[in-house]
Amino acid sequence: MGLAEVTKEEIKFSDKLLARIAVLKAHFPKGKHKSALLTVLHEVQDEHNNWLSVPVMDKVAEVLGILPIEVYEVATFYTMYNQQPVGKYMFEFCRTSCCCLRGAEDLIEYTCNKLGVEEGQVTADGLFSVKTTECLGACGYAPMLQLGDYYHEFLTPEKMDKLIDVCRVGNVEFYSKV
Amino acid sequence: MGKKILLEHINVPGIETYEVFRKMGGYASVEKALKTKTPLEVVEEVKKSGLRGRGGAGFPTGLKWSFIDKKSGNPRQLVCNADESEPGTFKDRYLMEKLPHLLVEGMIVSSFALEAHLSYIYIRGEYMWVFRILEKAIKEAYAAGWLGKNIQGSGYDLDLHVTCGAGAYICGEETALIESLEGKRGNPRIKPPFPAVVGLYGNPTVVNNVETIMDIPWIVNNGGEEFAKFGIGKSTGTKLISASGNIKKPGVYEIELSIPVEEFVMSDEYCGGMQTDRPLKACVPGGSSVPILPANLLFKTAKGETRLMTYESMSDGGFATGSMIGSGGFIVYDDRACIVRNTWNFARFYHHESCGQCSPCREGTGWMEKVLWRIEHGFGNIEDIDLLWDIQRKIEGNTICPLGDAAAWPVAAAIRHFRDEFEFHIRYPEKVKDRKHFEKEPWEQVKHLVKKEDAVLV
Predict the structure, then answer these.
(1) Which of B46, B149, B291, B311 is 20–30 Å from B328 (CA)?
(2) What's the rounded mean pLDDT across residues A140-154?
């Protein structure tokens, strides 16, 4: 990816992102702007191919005026922050009990076979990755997956085929709008 | 149709927008509270309602509010816990997607009652599109004068913001949530001091679940006594139940806290009966942390009384023969489900979600996951059942926060009620090699294998 070799100085956040960070910081009392860290990391990750490299995290620390370690310890604790490059379209399947009762395991197998990857892997073209996650709060609409900011629910192999097709042509809702 | 408090207007087109919500009487409780009541009077009204925390613990809300420290003079804070992550629970998401302004309204009235001037909604990071819905609702509320300085000319000021997590079940625990809201890892704090005294930024803080907060406007509008007319005894009002698993109609239902469990599962108004009319095998009635109940203890208590959807009836019989209503995450299993596999699945969840602070939980959840994996996959030995029992006992009560208990209870209950099934896995490993073993050969057809040998052994 090359990103890992770049230095913090070479990382540039867009004006839009910086403006958004300023808004988020302003939600907290003076001196407590570290509170914005989790939300900021989501926004930063969205602008950096859905993962957080060390230089990107260092840049976050600089922008928020906190130590790099304060960013690392948070980024490594929460599962939604990716420390490694991921596929452009990362299918995050819920694998917890309620989804399994409704065929989640079959669907994960089906998707892995279709894409020729195992759980946690990225396809050779970098387009897709399959990940399993713990309960996403969609137990009644199982089986389901998360893609970007959105949930895809009541999935079947046919719906999965369609979803993969629309991803291939880049015609899928991904980030929700501010 | 049962009486609705929260979902009364759920089918009104556009109810998620400010205009329609307002037209349907939204924000009336803010006007009433700010203009005609003192904060203390609102607290009293909530106490009279008997409302209990809807996040899972069921602690009386008015009482929780009355504990907030006023002596220190530090600013008080209200935080709404929208970190819904208990497996089986998806009601808060439904409420926030459909009725975002009801949450904002509830936050204003509740903040007023607590005399808080800066409040937050902490939502799980996965619900990012809901985060956006709430952001929009808050913006609209500011524009309409329901938030900010001197709300509706009352002299009361309140700022409200939404912030998010990033995938950590533990942040649903209130002190972990506070840590996370401060921009840190979600490690629960040692109590005491309780958040009511030392919470967010060291200030007195109340943390309430989404549904709890959303009940407040109705209570202010109609009075606590009216609310208490619904339900039975100390289970007042209505509760949202998230129903999932092998039922015909999974979804979110508002029930009066009094209906029989059997009615909830079997009637067309709610779950609509079993998914493919197969026999009911078990149920986890209140989210993954509460004890699983076998079919024979679900509709009737051990004493043979009708089991009701109330805090008291659901826990009738204690952990020996009862469970808990918890978060209302109601998971139903038919005879194709494997209890060992389900327990392994839950143990994996808790292992993944343990924050790692306390050894019994950090290590114990991992051991339980491993031991359950090997039993489920046909590699267990007969001592493993007692080993599991021993591990869960050593976790329970020995951790800073209740995640340890939450991890231990499902394992204990599974062994308590389904020990035969564990033995079956161990003694007939070739029969459980296929993960769909009970789908092909339901438990009822094979259980004689362990029962018969038991008889021989005796």
Answers:
(1) B46
(2) 97
User: Residue B454 pLDDT more than 90?
Assistant: no
Position A174 scores a pLDDT of 87
A171 pLDDT band, cuts 50/70/90, is confident
Query: A3-77: which CATH architecture?
Result: Orthogonal Bundle (1.10)
CA distance A21 to B13: 35
Alpha-carbon distance A4 to B282, whole Å?
50
Nearest CA in chain B to A45: B166
A137 with B126: Cβ contact below 8 A = yes
User: What's domain A89-168's superfamily in CATH?
Assistant: Glutaredoxin (3.40.30.10)
Query: Which of B345, B348, B403, B437 to mutate against chain A (most A CBs within 10 Å)?
Result: B345
pLDDT at A1 over 60: no
State both tokens at A91: 């299918």
Contacting residues of B for A136, CB less than 8 Å apart: 126
Closest CA to A20 of A1, A52, A45, A2: A45
Contact at CB, B186 and A136, closer than 8 angstroms: no
Write out chain B residues lying below 8 Å of A96, CB-based.
87, 288, 345-346, 349
**H or E element, residue A132:** strand A128-133
**In this structure, which topology does domain B236-334 adopt according to CATH?**
Ubiquitin-like (UB roll) (3.10.20)
Q: Which residue has the tokens 């309204």?
A: B105
Q: Which of B90, B168, B201 sits opposite A139 (nearest CB)?
A: B90
Mean confidence (pLDDT) of chain B: 96
Q: What's the pLDDT tens digit per position in B68-94?
A: 999 999 999 999 999 999 999 999 999
pLDDT band of A7, cuts 50, 70, 90: confident
**If you measure CA to CA, which chain B residue comes closest to A39?**
B164
pLDDT tens for each residue of B325-364: 999 999 999 999 999 999 999 999 999 999 999 999 999 9
- Chain A residues closer than 8 Å to B244 by CB: 98, 101-102, 139-140, 142
For residue A4, the model assigns a pLDDT of 53
Cβ of A132 under 8 Å from any chain B Cβ? no
A74 and chain B in contact, CB less than 8 A = yes
Evaluate if residue A115 carries a pLDDT over 90.
yes
- What average pLDDT does the segment B171-193 reach? 97
Q: Where are the domains of chain A?
A: 3-77, 89-168
At how many degrees (to 10) do helices B359-376 and B403-427 cross?
20
Whether B346 sits inside 8 A of A149 (CB atoms) is: no
Residues in chain B with CB shorter than 8 Å from the CB of A105 are 435
Phi, psi of B284 (to 5 degrees): -105, 105
| Alpha carbons B179 and B174: distance in angstroms, whole number | 9
Q: Which residue of B has its CA nearest to A150?
A: B129
CB pair distance less than 8 Å for A79 and B163: no
Sequence ranges of the domains in chain B: 18-229, 236-334, 339-457
Q: Which residue of A has its CA nearest to B435?
A: A105
Decide yes or no: CATH 3.40.50.11540 for domain B18-229: yes
A17-26 CB contacts, 8 Å cutoff, 24+ apart:
A17/A43, A17/A44, A17/A47, A18/A63, A20/A178, A21/A63, A21/A64, A24/B163, A25/A64
Chain A residues with CB-CB distance to B242 below 8 A? 139-140
A87-106 residues touching B, CB cutoff 8 A:
95-98, 100-102, 105
CATH of B339-457 among 1.20.1440.230, 2.40.30.170, 3.40.50.10860, 3.30.70.1230? 1.20.1440.230
